[in-house]
Known about the structure:
The complex is a heterodimer. Chain A is α/β, with parallel strands linked by helices.
Amino acid sequence: MIRVYNLTYTYEKGRSPAVKGLNLEIDEGEYIAIIGPNGCGKTTLIRHFNALLIPSVGEVQVAELNTRDSKSLLEIRRRVGMAFQNADNQIVGMSVEEDVAFGPGNLGLPAAEVRRRVDQALEMVGLTGLQTHSPHTLSGGQKQLLALAGLLAMEPKIIVLDEPTASLDPEGKKKVLTLLKTLNLQGIGIIHVTHSMEEAALASRILVMNQGEVVADGSPGDILRRVEWLKSLGLAPPQITELMWQLQQRGEDVGTSIFTVDAAVEEISNLLERLKSARKA
Amino acid sequence: MYKLGYIFLESPVHKKDPRIKLIAVIALSIIILHVGFVGLLIASAAALVIALLARIPLGSLLRTLHPVLPFFGLLFLLYLFFTPGRPLPLFPIGPLLISHEGLTLGVLQVWKFLLLVVAASILTMTTSQSELTMGLEQLLRPIRITGVSSHDVAMMVSLALRFMPTLMDELELIRQAQLARGANLNPPRMSGKIRAMSHLAVPLAVNIFRRCDELIEAMEARGYQQGHRTYLRELVLSRSDYCLIAGILLLLITVIVT
């Protein structure tokens, strides 16, 4: 779906590139998390996925469409939706439904089709009933859901999110993350840039970036258990994984591919069970 | 919150196409500049009937006059004292002179301006902001020949309206942040007041530019391009709507010509 060949991007001439020599393939329907310290090039990379940035060197292709080709621009942006950290600055409509209608309107769809897509998108994110509300009256979480509805109304194949939960309360976070999971199950690809390892653990593939390069690419099981390595990059593994890792360091017999409280409870009960039976024997 | 006073109601006036209402208000403002007392009386009666049809509470309609009253009061006094003509009985009192002409002209002009404000208020109270921008976009279609797209103009208007409450909130945040750092935002002297104002305006302007960058990026990411686009609703004029517009224009021409 998205192919990146030898991508290098430099913001200003003479400065060191923000991403360098990057190669990447992303298939349809994948759920990918991108993690890495600040300034590692995550944001630069994802801005290439819908042609907001054009490579200095190399190529980016979205479903065979090259982002350098200005004729495919609208089609690329229709297929790859992008949500940013600050939802407030992405909302352009004076009411909820008008904001969702912005994307389909840009595609030049007839009013009846715009209406159908707006209703459908609002239904998907659970904002039905707020159609005529002013965006200003929504909570932070609702604004982010509205921003997502605006993307969904364009019926994208992939949604790219740049720290969508950074300024949300736990309730809002949960809603957005649940929605991402649901959308992914419906076949929409998700690319989620995040600082939270707990959120990254929800993906099926994690890319770790550092200094403009992808330094690791694998399943959460592969990546998140490398506790010391993550720490050396300035990243914190999920606390629950670190707990398991510290237990393991102390010589307890536990795995470290554990990212949720539920999985940890399971693992620790098993350990206790084993200890009990060992004592009896 | 900033809402231009739109009151959502089911009424024949609310349901009318925003273009008709815009044309009517523009026509009215031209007409009343050309008429005398009788015409003004008829126009005011018409405005009253429309307000009643729209089921606007008259109290809230009059309240919209509140902010402009001091200005119009001053205007009235200027007309009253500075129009030459036959003096009223008892005048002149010392240097003060009030003429018949001054009194009539003052009442007439202030009445005209008040009626204009009332008409504009009826428009904004019966038409939502989005309807207004859509109406504006369609009425401005002919400016295409100048190379400007009416879609772009409508987009600008609607963004300005959309960000008004956001910027109000932001201004309040900046004010509190400055107060928290010990700023005196209401100093006694004028020079100090201006300096205090800049302590609010400069950070606000910087924030607006930053917001703008993000907004443009988000709009581009959603496929925004200058020029043609479609909307959630389409405005359709019925035959009776066309008749109404023709009637308004006919009235306008008659008044101007006679």
